[in-house]
Design a protein that fits this description.
Layout (H helix, E strand, L loop, with lengths): L1 H24 L57 H4 L4 H4 L52
Keywords: Electron transport, Heme, Iron, Metal-binding, Periplasm, Signal, Transport
InterPro entries: Multihaem_cyt_sf (IPR036280), NapB (IPR005591)
Family: Belongs to the NapB family.
Protein backbone atom coordinates (compact mmCIF):
# COMPACT_ATOMS: atom_id res chain seq x y z
CA UNK A 1 0.00 0.00 0.00
CA UNK A 2 2.91 2.38 0.68
CA UNK A 3 4.50 1.82 -2.73
CA UNK A 4 1.51 3.09 -4.82
CA UNK A 5 1.26 6.19 -2.60
CA UNK A 6 5.00 6.86 -2.93
CA UNK A 7 4.83 6.35 -6.70
CA UNK A 8 1.92 8.81 -6.91
CA UNK A 9 3.79 11.42 -4.91
CA UNK A 10 6.90 11.05 -7.10
CA UNK A 11 4.81 11.33 -10.28
CA UNK A 12 3.12 14.49 -8.98
CA UNK A 13 6.47 16.00 -7.97
CA UNK A 14 7.96 15.27 -11.41
CA UNK A 15 4.94 16.83 -13.15
CA UNK A 16 5.09 19.97 -11.02
CA UNK A 17 8.85 20.28 -11.56
CA UNK A 18 8.50 20.06 -15.35
CA UNK A 19 5.63 22.56 -15.29
CA UNK A 20 7.74 24.95 -13.19
CA UNK A 21 10.68 24.71 -15.59
CA UNK A 22 8.36 25.41 -18.52
CA UNK A 23 6.93 28.48 -16.82
CA UNK A 24 10.38 29.77 -15.88
CA UNK A 25 11.61 29.47 -19.46
CA UNK A 26 8.59 31.23 -20.90
CA UNK A 27 8.76 34.14 -18.44
CA UNK A 28 8.78 37.43 -20.31
CA UNK A 29 10.65 40.58 -19.45
CA UNK A 30 14.11 39.03 -19.15
CA UNK A 31 16.89 41.08 -20.71
CA UNK A 32 20.63 41.00 -20.94
CA UNK A 33 22.97 43.58 -19.45
CA UNK A 34 22.96 45.33 -22.83
CA UNK A 35 19.17 45.83 -22.69
CA UNK A 36 18.14 43.39 -25.42
CA UNK A 37 16.01 40.32 -24.94
CA UNK A 38 17.90 37.20 -23.98
CA UNK A 39 17.02 35.47 -27.26
CA UNK A 40 17.69 38.55 -29.46
CA UNK A 41 21.04 38.94 -31.23
CA UNK A 42 22.96 42.03 -30.13
CA UNK A 43 24.67 43.78 -33.05
CA UNK A 44 28.12 45.18 -32.40
CA UNK A 45 28.26 48.89 -33.11
CA UNK A 46 32.02 49.05 -32.94
CA UNK A 47 34.80 46.52 -32.64
CA UNK A 48 37.20 47.62 -29.93
CA UNK A 49 40.86 47.17 -30.75
CA UNK A 50 43.68 46.09 -28.51
CA UNK A 51 45.42 49.01 -26.83
CA UNK A 52 49.16 49.17 -27.43
CA UNK A 53 50.07 51.52 -24.58
CA UNK A 54 50.21 49.99 -21.13
CA UNK A 55 47.39 50.82 -18.74
CA UNK A 56 48.18 51.80 -15.16
CA UNK A 57 47.23 49.44 -12.39
CA UNK A 58 44.21 50.69 -10.48
CA UNK A 59 44.80 49.02 -7.12
CA UNK A 60 47.60 47.46 -5.11
CA UNK A 61 48.43 43.87 -6.14
CA UNK A 62 46.37 44.13 -9.35
CA UNK A 63 47.66 41.61 -11.89
CA UNK A 64 49.14 43.47 -14.87
CA UNK A 65 46.98 43.70 -17.98
CA UNK A 66 48.29 42.06 -21.17
CA UNK A 67 49.27 44.79 -23.70
CA UNK A 68 49.02 42.46 -26.71
CA UNK A 69 46.54 40.04 -28.25
CA UNK A 70 46.44 36.48 -26.92
CA UNK A 71 43.79 35.22 -29.35
CA UNK A 72 46.04 32.62 -30.95
CA UNK A 73 47.91 31.59 -27.78
CA UNK A 74 47.67 27.95 -26.78
CA UNK A 75 47.16 27.42 -23.08
CA UNK A 76 46.24 23.93 -21.88
CA UNK A 77 47.55 21.28 -19.49
CA UNK A 78 50.67 20.67 -21.58
CA UNK A 79 51.38 24.00 -23.26
CA UNK A 80 51.49 27.62 -22.15
CA UNK A 81 52.72 29.93 -24.90
CA UNK A 82 53.00 32.89 -22.53
CA UNK A 83 56.07 31.25 -21.02
CA UNK A 84 57.87 31.44 -24.39
CA UNK A 85 58.52 35.11 -23.61
CA UNK A 86 57.73 35.65 -19.92
CA UNK A 87 59.44 32.70 -18.19
CA UNK A 88 62.60 33.83 -16.38
CA UNK A 89 64.74 31.77 -18.78
CA UNK A 90 63.45 33.68 -21.85
CA UNK A 91 62.33 37.13 -20.70
CA UNK A 92 65.74 38.81 -20.97
CA UNK A 93 66.29 37.68 -24.56
CA UNK A 94 62.76 38.64 -25.61
CA UNK A 95 62.58 41.99 -23.80
CA UNK A 96 59.43 40.88 -21.98
CA UNK A 97 58.57 41.40 -18.32
CA UNK A 98 59.52 38.44 -16.14
CA UNK A 99 56.95 36.58 -14.07
CA UNK A 100 56.98 37.50 -10.41
CA UNK A 101 58.68 35.00 -8.10
CA UNK A 102 55.28 34.13 -6.63
CA UNK A 103 54.58 32.24 -9.86
CA UNK A 104 57.42 29.85 -8.97
CA UNK A 105 56.16 28.94 -5.49
CA UNK A 106 54.13 25.82 -4.81
CA UNK A 107 51.18 25.70 -2.39
CA UNK A 108 53.51 25.30 0.56
CA UNK A 109 55.70 28.27 -0.42
CA UNK A 110 58.58 26.10 -1.67
CA UNK A 111 60.48 27.77 -4.51
CA UNK A 112 60.66 25.80 -7.78
CA UNK A 113 62.55 26.31 -11.03
CA UNK A 114 59.37 26.05 -13.13
CA UNK A 115 55.97 27.77 -13.00
CA UNK A 116 53.69 26.34 -10.34
CA UNK A 117 50.60 24.48 -11.47
CA UNK A 118 48.47 26.93 -9.50
CA UNK A 119 49.80 29.76 -11.72
CA UNK A 120 49.85 27.87 -15.05
CA UNK A 121 46.71 29.40 -16.62
CA UNK A 122 47.72 33.06 -16.95
CA UNK A 123 44.35 34.34 -18.14
CA UNK A 124 42.74 33.46 -14.82
CA UNK A 125 44.23 36.71 -13.52
CA UNK A 126 45.75 38.53 -16.49
CA UNK A 127 43.42 39.82 -19.21
CA UNK A 128 44.14 41.67 -22.45
CA UNK A 129 43.68 45.41 -22.08
CA UNK A 130 41.13 47.07 -24.33
CA UNK A 131 39.51 50.47 -24.10
CA UNK A 132 35.87 49.31 -24.26
CA UNK A 133 32.93 50.87 -22.43
CA UNK A 134 31.77 49.10 -19.28
CA UNK A 135 28.68 46.89 -19.56
CA UNK A 136 27.42 48.15 -16.19
CA UNK A 137 27.98 51.39 -14.30
CA UNK A 138 31.14 51.45 -12.23
CA UNK A 139 32.05 54.11 -9.68
CA UNK A 140 35.43 52.63 -8.70
CA UNK A 141 38.07 55.21 -7.83
CA UNK A 142 41.72 54.11 -7.58
CA UNK A 143 43.24 54.39 -4.13
CA UNK A 144 46.27 56.24 -5.47
CA UNK A 145 45.72 59.61 -7.12
CA UNK A 146 47.84 60.35 -10.13
Amino acid sequence: MRQPVLAGILAAAATLTLAGIGLAQSASGLSSLRGAGVEDPVPLEQVFKQETQRFNREYRQQPPLVPHSIDQYQMDLRTNQCLGCHDWTNAGDRGAPTLSMTHYLDRDGVEMDHVAGTRWFCNQCHVPQVNAPALVDNEFVPSVTR
